[in-house]
Design goal:
Oligomer: single chain
CATH architecture: 3-Layer(aba) Sandwich
Largest sheet: 7 strands, mixed
Order of helices and strands: HHHEHEHEHEHEHEE
């Protein structure tokens, strides 16, 4: 699928209103991603033919289901090829997005991609979750952590706890608008597939005080990828 009426229709159908310039940027991103994928394993080769639905649309869907306040600091934990961080940053230029990965070659590729896309609201950091401290990122903390196919939920919660900011007075206030779910900042959005109940149970045993919510993506108009089975796990940190 190219950046055409089909992808535009899918976005609109799923509550994602993107301008033409944003779609152009996403198309350029896909080209750069696939070019770099010939040299560095940013996405699975078997997924290349389904990149628009399997990666771009999937990365954007949390924006249609969850309210992320303006000016939030967002961390894409274990970003890989910049997913979901880059599509999110393109769709929401008001967010300040940090792409974090532990593989140096991937972060070097992402630095090139971000520079060529001209994304002023994105920065790339190299580091390993669980070992990284906020002082290494030169930031007071993140409001929202995104994690897509990175690790078990209990590990994601552990890593995220060390990277979010606790000063609720300084953090943006969450609100409810339309059909979007609203959560207390800071929070983690874990993008998962399949049966997630065992992961939730193990996380609840380890983190008894954490509020864990399951948000179905309810993807409309998709027949070429099994996004209907994808879910969002939201943990208020």
């Amino acid at each position: 699928m190219n950046r055409d009426l089909d992808f535009f229709r899918l976005c609109k159908l799923n509550g994602l209103g993107l301008a033409a310039v944003q779609l152009d940027t996403l198309q350029y991103y896909v080209k750069l991603l696939l070019d770099w994928n010939l040299k560095v394993n940013l996405v699975s080769r078997k997924d290349e033919s389904n990149v628009w639905v399997g990666h771009i649309l999937h990365s954007l869907l949390p924006l249609a289901r969850i309210e992320i306040p303006p000016d939030s600091f967002v961390l894409d934990l274990g970003t890989g090829g910049g997913l979901p961080g880059i599509p999110v940053a393109v769709a929401r230029p008001d967010l300040r997005v940090t792409l974090l990965d532990s593989v140096r070659k991937k972060t070097e590729a992402l630095q090139d991609i971000v520079a060529k896309l001209g994304l002023k609201n994105v920065e790339v950091k190299w580091g390993r979750a669980g070992e990284l401290k906020l002082r290494n990122l030169h930031i007071v903390g993140f409001d929202v952590v995104l994690a897509r196919a990175v690790g078990p939920l209990k590990d994601l919660i552990k890593w995220s706890h060390d990277l979010v900011r606790r000063n609720s007075a300084a953090a943006p206030k969450a609100s409810f608008t339309g059909t979007k779910a609203s959560f207390k900042l800071p929070f983690l959005i874990a993008m998962k597939g399949g049966d997630v109940h065992d992961e939730i149970k193990k996380a609840q045993i380890r983190y008894k005080d954490s509020q864990i919510s399951l948000v179905d993506l309810l993807v409309k108009g998709v027949s070429e990828a099994e996004l209907v089975e994808k879910k969002l796990l939201v943990v208020e940190l």
